[in-house]
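Bumping my old thread because nobody answered last time. Still need a sequence for this structure:
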C-alpha cells in the first residue's frame, strides 16, 4: 500500500502535467484563453469560466456566433445577433448578452481580428485568475507541501517498519547458585574492606 505522501505527490504531478499539456495544446492550435468576469452570458457561459477562444478575421463571424473582444479595457463576451456586411472586409456586428433582454446599444467593429468562442470550462477561470494574482503564494504553498511530504515520508515509513518488527522476548537461563560460596565471598570482601 502506498503512503499518503506518495499518493499526493503523484496526484499533484499528474495535475501539473495535464495542465501543461492542455496549455501547450491550446497554444499549438492557435487558440487562447480568457477568464469570464460576469454573468451576462449565462446560462451559456457561467461567471468564472475559462474561455477557449480562437482569433479569426471579422469577415468569418456569422450570426449566432459568440465572440470575445476588448471593450473599454475589459474583455466582453457577446452573441452576434446581426451582421451588417455592407463593408465585407470590416463588417459591423450587433451583439447581445444572453442574459440581457435587449441588444447592446452600439454596434461592434473590429479592425483586426476577433476572438471566436470555442469552449468554456466552468469555474476554472477562478483558479486561473487566482493563480495569476497570487502565483508566488501558490508556489510557496506547493513548495511547503512538497517539503512536508518529503520530510514526513521517511519518518512515517520508519515508524511503520518498526511497528511491523516484533520485539524479541528475552530467553531466561537457569543458573545454579551455591549460597554458601556466595556468603563466603561476601564475608571475605567485607574483611578486606574493613582494615
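Sorry it took so long. Here it is:
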Amino acid at each position: 500500500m502506498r503512503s499518503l505522501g506518495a499518493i499526493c505527490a503523484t496526484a499533484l504531478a499528474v495535475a501539473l502535467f495535464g495542465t501543461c499539456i492542455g496549455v501547450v495544446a491550446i497554444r499549438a492550435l492557435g487558440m487562447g484563453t480568457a477568464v469570464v468576469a460576469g454573468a451576462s452570458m449565462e446560462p451559456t457561459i457561467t461567471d468564472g469560466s475559462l474561455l477557449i477562444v480562437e482569433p479569426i478575421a471579422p469577415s468569418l463571424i456569422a450570426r449566432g456566433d459568440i465572440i470575445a473582444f476588448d471593450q473599454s479595457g475589459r474583455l466582453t463576451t457577446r452573441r452576434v445577433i446581426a451582421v451588417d456586411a455592407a463593408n465585407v472586409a470590416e463588417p459591423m456586428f450587433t451583439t447581445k448578452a444572453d442574459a440581457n433582454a435587449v441588444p447592446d446599444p452600439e454596434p461592434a467593429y473590429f479592425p483586426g481580428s476577433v476572438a471566436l468562442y470555442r469552449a468554456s470550462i466552468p469555474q476554472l477561470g477562478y483558479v486561473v485568475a487566482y493563480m495569476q494574482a497570487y502565483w508566488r503564494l501558490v508556489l510557496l504553498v506547493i513548495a511547503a507541501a512538497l517539503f512536508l511530504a518529503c520530510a514526513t515520508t521517511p519518518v512515517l515509513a520508519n515508524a511503520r517498519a518498526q511497528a511491523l518488527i516484533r520485539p524479541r522476548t528475552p530467553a531466561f537461563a537457569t543458573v545454579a547458585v551455591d549460597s554458601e560460596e556466595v556468603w563466603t565471598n561476601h564475608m571475605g570482601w567485607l574483611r578486606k574492606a574493613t582494615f
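Residues 128 and 178 are 85 Å apart (CA to CA). Let me know if any region looks off to you.
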